[in-house]
Every structure is written in structure tokens, then in C-alpha cells.
Amino acid sequence: MKIYNIVFSPTGGTKKVSDIVSKELSQDIEEINLADMNMLEYALNGELAIISMPSYGGRAPKIAFERLKQIKGNGIKTIVIAVYGNRAYEDTLLEMYDVAQSNDFDVIGAIAAIAEHSIVRMYAANRPDFDDEIQLKNFAHKIVEKLNSHVDTKPNIPGNRPYKNFKGIGLIPKTNKKCNNCRICAKNCPVGAINTDDVSKIDATKCISCMRCVSICPRSAKKINKLITFLAGLAIRKECIVRKENELYL
Distance between CA atoms of 8 and 70, rounded to whole angstroms? Predict the structure, then answer.
């Protein structure tokens, strides 16, 4: 079965989830990276598409949807996956369903999955873990069962329309003295927010607080202020302290 693995994963957690599901379904996988600023237009021709995005404050990143709209679904059967850091995914999954459907993807299922929080990394640390992998592989088998049954029903996905208002996270990484201006962060920023001549300059109007620059810097030169991170963790502690499980909607 030919699968398109369409993923927006700045820090890698969302990709880990999507890889577990896609590789359990098939070995014939073509990846489309929505975090690539130079992403080309696509017209799909296969059996299944998996669209995976992170949840930022209960919504998916706007830029991920803009790039998804460069892909013509051509009616392909599709699974949408929202990945969040153990707080809540709120309207993310429903919004993904709506945008995919409007772009000619035939969404037959949805997954809400957990990965390590991209900012407060103590929450959902090292997830997806072994138990998550077992659960996600089981979801993949149930997806195959639905595909083989030819039952054409839509998943009942939780969320609200209109979607919750999202004003941005507003946490802009700072550059410390370890930086040698190698420009790896600037070359890999999914929204082009980092100045290529001076990587200490980040355009706050473009930055989506995805933390890719923090995660890929080989010298750990990009950081969020420790006090701000601590306060952010404290603010969401009540919602994050209890382990949440992955969810499947078919």
C-alpha cells in the first residue's frame, strides 16, 4: 500500500508518532515535509495519506495548513494525527479534519497522540514511549480493518466550531555566547524567522515558538529563559501532571 506521510514536525516528536503509524501500515512510504520552506506542490496518487501536525495552544500551526493547501488530495483516504505535549489538543484535530476535507482529502480516521512537550520538556518526557508504540500500532491495525471493510463513515472528532482563538505562544528563543553563527538554525527555521547574517536576530512577527532552532543547535546556543520556562510549566502543571493516553477516532 502506497502511503504519503505528510508531516509538520519542527522538534521531531510529531514525526516519531507519524512514523510509528505509517511504518506499521506499509513499507512503501513517501514523506512530504510541511516544515520545508521550499516544499513543492504535490498531486497525490496512492492508497492512503497520513497528515500529522503538532498542537500549539490547542490549534495547529497556520503555516502547516498553508503548505498543506499546496497538496492536491485527489480524494485519497486520509488519517489526521494531532500530537500534543500531554496538556490538551482542544480544537487541533477538528481543524485538521476540516482543512483536509476542504482540500480533497477523504478523512476516514483521526488520532490524538502524545509526544514530549516541546517547551516544558519534563511533561510527556521521552514519549512516544514503548506503551505508546504498542497502542499506535494497534490503531494502525484498526485503520486497516476499516479500509478493508470499505465502510465510508466519518470520524466523530471532538472540538469546537468556531475554533478557539489563538494569539500565539510568544516564547522567542534567545541566543547565547556559545553561538558561532553556523546558520543551521536559520537554514532550518520553518518560517524563515531567523536572520541569516546574524542568527541572534529573530523576527518575532514570524516566529511560531516551534523550538526547532533550540532542538537542532549543535552548540545549545538557542534557549528559552529558564524562569519563563519554569513559569510556563507551573501554569500548565495541573493539566499535564497525569499521563494522558492516545485516542483513535474512526
Answer: 14
Q: For 21-51, what is the HEC assignment?
A: HHHHHCCEEEEEECCCCCCCCEECCCCEEEE
What's the whole-number mean pLDDT along residues 174-196? 95
Round to whole Å and give the CA distance between 81 and 95.
11
Task: Summarize pLDDT for 11-46 with one digit per residue, the tens.
Answer: 999 999 999 999 999 999 999 999 999 998 989 998
Give per-residue pLDDT as tens, 55-83.
Answer: 999 999 999 999 999 999 999 999 999 99
Rounded CA separation 97/107 (Å): 7
Rounded to 10°, the helix 13-25/130-149 angle is 50
Q: What average pLDDT is seen over the chain? A: 94
Output the pTM of the full model: 0.95
Which residues fall within 8 angstroms of residue 218, CB to CB, at 6 or more apart?
182, 184
**Who contacts 121 (Cβ-Cβ below 8 Å, separation ≥6)?**
none
